[in-house]
Amino acid sequence: MNEVKRRSCLSAGILERISIILADDKVLSHSDINRFLLQADLEPQPKTSSKRHRLFKAFADFQNKNQCSNHILKFIQLVVSPNRYVDKMDEFESLRASINKQLAFVGYELSENGNYRQVQKANTISEAQQRTNNLKKKLDGRNAHKELFKYCTADFLQNDYFGSVFEAHKGLFQRIREISGVQTDGNTLIESVFCDKNPILLINDRRSPSEKSEHRGFCNLLKGLCSMFRNPAAHEPKIHWEISEQDALDILGIISYCHRRLDKAQQIRLP
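^ thats the sequence. predicted structure below, dont judge the formating
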């Protein structure tokens, strides 16, 4: 520890929230916990208590003894590693976003490549909540579709504009899957559901040339949204780019429009 920079202690509240996040069944099993505790040089915990309590005790014991969070951060880094989520990028991004909301209060962020970087510290819960309220108020003022709030609320917390847009994008494509019954993703999903030759969903009667053009345009609009978040070569979600509040509101407005068209979509055949 002497040769490594000592990282700031995490408050009991942050440790508790991180323990709850990592204790999710999709993230860690009881066996996983001790394996990663050992790898991070933290004290293994008996399986007689719940996962969240085992994690919290290991974190708190280390921090009380060493007055730093180094090994706790190492544990988080091992668990939230891109290598564990090669075929589950959405789960990785969701987990990383949840962890980063807590780390933001000490000025740390876990990047998309699994390394830490310093960020501007979020000072108080009330400050973060004020940011949340501001963005929600602006979306309300635009009469945004209710589906946006369903998928974005958690990401508004730290005013993470990319996270908000990314979650809204995922929510839109999930809704298309639910309505159509097609379980693919990306352009494959859009082609299957809205293709010219044999579509599953229609946003209009698709009889006149103008209606056919509108339907085709909607299909291309969805493909454009998909391309914003996908790497065409790797077919993986893009990780992060800087999005201003204004850009976020504009993109969320497009997603809101797509949801409104889906409200009136007709399913004309089964997948």
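The CA atoms of residues 13 and 102 lie 9 Å apart.
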